[in-house]
Write a structure and sequence with these properties.
heterodimer, A: mainly alpha, 4 helices, B: mainly alpha, 3-stranded antiparallel sheet, 27 helices, 5 strands, 65% helix, globular
Chain lengths: 109, 867
């Protein structure tokens, strides 16, 4: 369930590192922007995969009870799938948000 | 139906068999309905009452029961909050009129520093821990927390440390550079103020981490049978998330404190730019802690709201999964925002944009839970019970704080209002709305659970409206004061600035807030002996805490229930009868021991009935000596401090030796409902293993923060490492790495060999492990010392030495643990069958070996590559 936000966390840390090194050590904003873009594509790919897996695990059928409040193993599995699916959406939004500045800001200053 | 557990695993060995549950699980309807003998029931009840008896008279102080420790904790934190509130009032008196000389500038600085520090470190986080220690076992139908003595130890550490830090203000020696202690101001400050802050608060942070570890283990391992992760109360979800956040947020600050104190006492220049240091490192480490901290105090209070809202609406919460998503999502995203406190420090604008965007993103999960609450209220039949009033007020105020938060997350806006009263207003809106209001509502809500009496409805409403109005009168004008340019932390201002009436209004408001809080405080402590006992479930809540005993019993739960829904009291009408009749698990204490059920992490299947610790004095002694080890260095009494530290270790060893992982008389016991459970478990079934794992995760985070420091210097400084600098000796570093790997290997092999019954070989291996560790640590020390690296000359050798000190101290701990196992093996406390101590030591060693290897890379390889 927490894999997608973990991907967000790694994306975040790597972006921060790439920006710091590229901007401060090398003074090359384009490398920073390209690096972040590449990381973002990779992160979104992984999150998309995790989200798809969680969606399958959630096993959502329209009209079903999806409160997942029964004490059975399948309800627990579906609950974790639901949580994982929602978290991958939030993580994807987080990753996209984090990457937005590279479209707007062209310099390191 | 029988042996449902064992059948699912392939051919367990005989020893594994002994550690497995035997019998029926889950319980059948017939077992649940089985009649019982009233006389036997009374006997069992008497056994249980005797085992859980709270000590009387002066021995009361040795109590470790969660209800006692939690109450002391909460009252102490509230006491510190009132003191910090008085400081706030004095600050407001000073600022009420222009050019005031009520306080000197110096004293004003001490007051605002202590106001912030005390509210954050002595009230907000400890209060969460206190309330959770009080409530969590009840939510989980558990007897107590998994490590009651650890809670007591944490409490006494908190009390000693808190009194020390806050007391400094009475002697005019308090820290005075603001609650975030920026260098160089704080590193250069004369006197002992910064040392009091650094050492005193590090001490409390360690106690906080101890409590966090306990809460996490409580949620993971002490849920009642059947309470799968999808039906546990939302409060437990929040406690889990916040515990994990504490685990990753506090260690960077501890690492920062460690570096800071090394600079203050040994002059190692981490934050001194003249010698290769950088004050920005402190800001990073502080805010990597500081921003998650905001959510660490906010989420537990929202957790209270998540319990009050369904009760007020008289229906299950809407969007349980969504709230879990929101808690977990906030837990993660809140770690990505710290730089928004540093927008004005000249970082690259690309980084600013990045952190600004991350700060906006956290609003999404935060908003989701508020919508879920509103939805629950909309579809339910709301009874405006008094606690709900506070929650409603909290949502309103917090939302306003959140909106200004979105504003200041935008870098250009932040540049305008940075360090002005706009920020003061924003942070008080988030903290009052996100912490104080839900907390007070929570106290009104849970008071009948805590004390079996009700607080006054009328006083509560008066207190709410006074506080609510006072708060807005005090802080709403501050937005404007800030926009008009008044900087925070100024002791006085000239009347030409046009800030007079706004400040006067705020000061008046602050006294109205104080009145409201005092009304609450009076209602809290006024004698209620003549008042009738409260009904058992006064608000008609659906969760387990309202199955408490009225009048109070110390056993926590008469029997540990089998739970099959999120709101057992609403959905299972035979639940209370079975619980009270002792017809669930462990309804007795045949050996007179305190016990708790341990269940699996995800599906809460029973795994063991473990003894837990009872009243003790050694925890208080351990806390006192630990206090000495942290407090005495403030006065440069290093030898006494070392002695005190040794005393603390001795107390802890005594406590572990006499009370934990004892070899049981019989391997398992009948826990009721046709189930037998082992009374000793090891590995990931055992709470002790989880506690070690979680503690070491936190510890590794602190270590990672120091490693981050090395990389930070490397990116931020052109002279790191300086040209021609001496590096650590490569051969010795390689030897040191080898030593750590050998010691690690010896420990693992010892565990395996011991399990196979070859205890002498295991002892020899443990002994070899000790020697390898000493050799590895010694080689690392020599590797730094022989090339003549001088830590006070430049930040490069200083960080290398800091890594060395860190690993050296951990090696010491590793040696103590190995020796403890060795002694245990000789004394018959550690046997091939009962080897929890060695298993946990091995777990510690995985982390220590990793730290040793990373340090070797950082010392031996990284500088040569970087230069």
């Amino acid at each position: 369930m927490v894999l997608a936000p973990t991907v967000w966390a790694f994306h975040f840390v790597f972006c921060y590192a790439v920006m710091s090194v590229a901007c401060i050590k090398l003074g090359a904003p384009d490398i920073a922007r390209l690096g972040v873009a590449a990381l973002t594509v990779i992160a979104l790919g992984i999150i998309g995969f995790l989200g798809w897996r969680a969606w399958v695990q959630w096993n959502f059928r329209p009209g079903d009870n999806y409160k997942h409040d029964r004490p059975t193993e399948s309800q627990r599995r579906e609950f974790l799938g639901h949580g994982g699916f929602l978290l991958s959406i939030v993580s994807a939004v987080g990753v996209i948000f984090d990457a937005l500045p590279i479209f707007i800001i062209e310099s390191c200053i | 139906m029988t042996d449902s557990r064992t059948s699912s695993h392939p051919a367990p060995t005989e020893e594994e068999q002994a550690a497995r549950p035997v019998g029926t699980y889950p319980p059948t309807q017939e077992l649940l309905d089985a009649p019982d003998d009233p006389q036997a029931r009374a006997e069992r009840e008497a056994q249980l009452r005797e085992a859980w008896k709270t000590p009387r008279g002066w021995r009361y102080l040795s109590a470790v029961n969660n209800t006692e420790v939690g109450a002391w904790y909460a009252l102490s934190a509230f006491g510190f909050m009132l003191c910090a509130g008085v400081l706030a009032l004095l600050i407001r008196v000073q600022l009420a009129v222009p050019d005031n000389d009520f306080l000197s500038a110096d004293r004003f600085n001490q007051f605002f520093t202590m106001h912030g520090s005390a509210m954050m470190f002595l009230f907000a986080v400890p209060m969460f821990e206190a309330i959770s220690i009080l409530l969590l076992p009840a939510f989980l139908g558990a007897r107590d927390m998994p490590f009651p003595r650890l809670s007591a130890y944490g409490y006494w550490c908190f009390l000693i440390g808190g009194s020390f830090v806050l007391g400094s203000v009475l002697f005019n020696v308090a820290p005075k550079s603001g609650w975030f202690m920026y260098p160089p101001l704080a590193t250069e400050q004369e006197g002992i103020g910064p040392d009091i802050w650094l050492l005193g608060l590090s001490f409390i942070e360690i106690a906080s981490i101890a409590a966090a570890v306990e809460l996490i283990v409580g949620v993971i391992k002490c849920r009642p049978p059947g309470m799968r992760i999808n039906i546990m109360p939302l409060y437990a979800w929040y406690v889990l998330v916040v515990g994990v956040m504490i685990l990753f947020a506090f260690p960077p600050l501890i690492a920062g404190d460690f570096l800071f104190e090394l600079q203050r006492s040994l002059d190692w220049p981490f934050f001194d730019p003249d010698r290769g240091g950088d004050p920005m490192l402190w800001q990073h480490l502080f805010w990597i802690f500081g921003h998650p901290e905001v959510y660490i105090v906010f989420l537990p209070s929202i957790a209270i709201a998540a319990m009050v809202v369904p009760t007020a609406s008289q229906r299950p919460i809407v969007g349980y999964s969504w709230i879990v998503l929101s808690a977990v999502g906030v837990g993660f995203l809140s770690f990505g925002l710290w730089v928004h406190h540093m927008f004005t420090t000249g970082l690259p604008s690309l980084s600013l944009g990045f952190f600004s965007a991350a700060s906006q993103a956290v609003v999404i999960p935060t908003g989701v839970q508020i919508f879920a609450f509103v939805a629950t209220l909309m579809v339910g039949r709301v009874k405006m019970i008094q606690p709900m009033l506070w929650i409603a007020g909290a949502l309103a105020i917090f939302t306003m704080g959140g909106l200004t938060g979105v504003m200041v997350a935008i870098a250009p806006f932040d540049w305008q209002v940075h360090d002005t009263y706009f920020i003061v207003a924003h942070l008080h809106y988030t903290l009052f709305g996100g912490l104080v209001f839900p907390l007070l509502g929570g106290v009104y809500y849970f008071y009948p659970f805590f004390t079996k009496r009700m607080m006054s409805d009328r006083l509560g409403r008066i207190s709410f409206w006074t506080t609510f109005i006072g708060f807005n009168v005090c802080f709403l004008p501050m937005h404007l004061t800030g926009l008009m340019g008044m900087p925070r932390r100024v002791a006085s201002y000239s009347s030409d600035m046009g800030w007079d009436w706004l400040n006067l209004l705020s000061s008046v408001g602050s006294f109205i807030v104080a009145t409201g809080i005092l009304i609450f405080a009076w209602d809290l402590v006024r004698p209620k002996r003549d008042q009738p006992l409260a009904p058992r479930n006064p608000w008609n809540g659906g969760t387990l805490e309202w199955s408490h005993d009225v009048p109070a019993e110390a056993w926590g739960s008469r029997s540990v229930p089998y739970v099959s829904s999120r709101y057992p009291l609403w959905e299972d009408d035979k639940f209370l009868e079975r619980l009270d009749g002792g017809r669930f698990y462990i309804p007795d204490a045949p050996e007179g021991k305190r016990e708790t059920l341990v269940t699996s992490a995800v599906d809460a299947e029973p795994q063991g009935a473990l003894p837990i610790t009872g009243p003790a004095w050694c925890t208080i002694w351990a806390a006192a000596f630990t206090g000495g080890a942290f407090i005495l260095p403030v006065f440069k009494l290093y030898w006494l401090a070392s002695l005190s530290g040794a005393g603390a270790v001795a107390c802890v060893v005594y406590w572990l030796w006499t009370a934990t992982a004892q070899v049981p008389k019989a391997p398992d016991r009948d826990v009721g409902l046709g189930l037998r459970l082992p009374v000793y478990v090891t590995g990931f079934r055992a709470p002790g293993w989880w506690a070690m794992f979680i503690t070491m995760l936190g510890d590794a985070t602190a270590f990672a923060s120091i490693v981050f420091g090395v990389f930070f210097f490397w990116t931020a400084r052109p002279d790191f490492p300086p040209e021609g600098a001496a590096h650590a000796d490569a051969t010795l570093i390689a030897l040191s790495a080898l030593g750590f790997v050998l010691a690690w290997g010896a420990t693992i092999t010892a565990r395996e060999v011991n399990r196979r019954g070859r205890q002498r070989a295991a002892r020899a291996l443990v002994g070899a492990g000790v020697l390898c560790t000493l050799g590895a640590a010694g080689a690392m020390g020599l590797a730094l010392w022989l090339p003549g690296m001088a830590p006070s000359s430049h930040a490069y050798p200083a960080t290398m030495y800091a890594l060395g000190v860190w690993v050296g101290a951990h090696s010491g701990a590793g040696v103590v643990m190995l020796l403890y196992c060795l002694a245990g093996s000789w004394a018959g406390k550690l046997t091939p069958r009962y080897d929890a101590d060695l298993v946990n030591t091995t777990l510690f060693w995985h982390f220590l070996c990793l730290m040793g290897l990373v340090t070797a890379l950082m010392m031996g390889v990284f500088p040569r590559l970087a230069s």
